[in-house]
Specification:
The protein has 3 domains: 105 residues, Gyrase A, domain 2, CATH 3.30.1360; 140 residues, Four Helix Bundle (Hemerythrin (Met), subunit A), CATH 1.20.120.430; 158 residues, Rossmann fold (3-Layer(aba) Sandwich), CATH 3.40.50. The chain has 15 helices and 12 strands. The protein has a 6-stranded mixed β-sheet with strand order 3-4-5-2-1-6. A 6-stranded mixed β-sheet has the order 8-9-7-10-11-12, with helices on both faces. The longest helix has 25 residues. The chain is flat and about 85 Å long.
Length: 447
């Protein structure tokens, strides 16, 4: 990271009422002295000031704007920051960015560089930075809630707490390495082993979260499966209230999986329509059926749909044991059945609906929502939201599993050191330059 002052448009480029342009670095205050008529001594940090914005070379007025100055270290990046709130026309934005480029020592920011500087300056750790990225990308209420929770430092506190416990253990071991003639007291051995045992159990429990944190970011996967002509595509179209899939009376019309993203009462859901499951010889349809089974394996919830006017729930006997913990049985075309027949289907654990007549859809929707909600709640602040967290936690756990005091104390201390390093990879307490570019490179320009 160089020491140049960076700038970027923090709002979307295009026609808008207001555009926000951020400048951060040791020379950020030069914007005030060289692009306005205001004296730096007259600027009160964190207060908005209305001023003409001038081209630093021609001294022509570029725009009228609100200017805010955040003095280091009390800023987002920990550096001096100037924020310009200009009019949002393309011409104004282009003129301001061009004017900033003319200032010596200024350059356009790279993706995520503001947040990266905040990390380097100790304003946030990596989990908080990634929570910020998730908040920017949030599309549902639950994604927003959890991103805010992670930004507030719940994961940081958890991992830092574990790391502190490991550092205490390491300190004891290092002390006895420095004094090899001293024997470790039995009560201390018992205490160290007990602390490691508790940490292992805590990490194992944390890792057993069934990918819920990642699902919250990427979407819970719901797959509709069933025989041909059961009404899978009709159900998808009814749920999303548009023609997302082709509906036809010809069996085998759906050959490939059709994915649609939905917001289910705040939870992100990826719902998939699949090819009808049956024995076929035709290669394209066979491939579609193989894709359907692959989607079922990865799904969080499988909607097993059948035509109740001619089939029974027994059509799923071949898959019910494989996916028994994540299935919901749906009896379609119940508009063709009697009340007694529908009641009997309900007794069998099926949800009677008519996709075409839009009957029973709300009941189905509530069932889907309750199943998702039962697996996750934003009241939990301890979800693993990224694969790299899992990898680092498993690395930590492996090191702790290797730890014992029957081996040479130097080797036992190395196990604890490796475990500490694994946790440090998550929060950024160690040198992790190799992953920083990957993390912050996914941010938008200006953040």
């Amino acid at each position: 990271m160089d020491d140049k002052t960076i700038y970027a448009l923090s709002t979307v480029f295009g026609k808008s009422g207001v555009a926000v342009i951020r400048i951060s670095g040791k020379s950020a205050a030069d914007v005030i002295t060289k692009m306005t008529t205001i004296s730096l001594a007259d600027i009160k940090p964190r207060y908005a000031c209305f001023t003409d914005l001038l081209d630093p070379v021609s001294r022509e007025t570029v725009d009228k704007c609100l200017l805010l100055y955040f003095r280091a270290p009390s800023s987002f990046t920990g550096e001096d920051i100037v924020e310009l709130q200009t009019h949002g026309s393309r011409a104004v934005i282009a003129a301001v960015l061009s004017a900033l480029s003319a200032l010596p020592g200024f350059r356009l920011a790279e993706p995520g560089e503001f947040s990266k500087r905040a990390f380097y300056n100790g304003k946030m750790d990596l989990t908080e930075a990634e929570g910020l990225a998730d908040l920017i990308d949030a599309e549902t209420a639950e994604q927003q809630k959890y991103a805010l929770r992670q930004m507030s430092g719940v994961l940081k506190s958890l991992y830092d707490g574990w790391r502190e416990e490991l550092l205490k253990i390491l300190a004891y071991l290092e002390a006895y390495i420095d004094f090899p003639d001293e024997n470790i007291p039995e009560e201390l051995i018992s205490q160290l082993l007990n602390n490691v045992f508790k940490l292992k159990n805590a990490i194992k429990e944390h890792l057993s979260g069934d990918n819920i944190g990642e699902r919250l970011r990427e979407g819970f996967r719901v797959v509709i499966v069933g025989p041909p002509n059961a009404g899978k595509s009709s159900l998808l179209n009814t749920i999303v209230r548009r023609d997302a899939a082709i509906v036809s009376d010809i069996a085998g019309t759906t050959r490939d999986a059709v994915d649609v993203y939905l917001d289910v009462k705040g939870y992100p859901v990826l719902i998939t329509d699949t090819a009808g499951i049956r024995e076929v010889e035709e290669e394209i349809e066979k491939k579609g059926i193989e894709i359907a089974f692959d989607k079922m394996k990865d799904a969080d919830l499988v909607l097993c749909l059948f035509d109740a006017s001619k089939d029974s729930v027994q059509v799923f006997d071949n898959i019910k044991d494989i996916f028994k913990n994540k299935t919901l049985y749906i009896a379609n075309k119940c508009d063709k059945l009697t009340f007694e027949q529908c009641s009997e289907l309900q007794k069998q654990g099926c949800i009677p609906i008519s996709a075409r007549q839009k009957q029973g859809i709300e009941v189905l929707w509530d069932n889907i929502y309750n199943l998702i909600k039962s697996r996750f709640t934003s009241g939990s602040g301890l979800l693993i939201t990224r694969q790299r967290y899992k990898e680092a936690l498993r690395e930590t756990l492996d090191a702790l599993e290797d730890f014992n005091l029957d081996k040479e104390i130097e080797l036992a201390a190395e196990d604890i050191r490796l475990a500490t390093r694994g946790l440090g990879k998550i929060t950024g307490h160690i040198e992790v330059d190799e992953i920083l570019d990957k993390i912050f490179g996914s941010f938008c320009i200006g953040k």
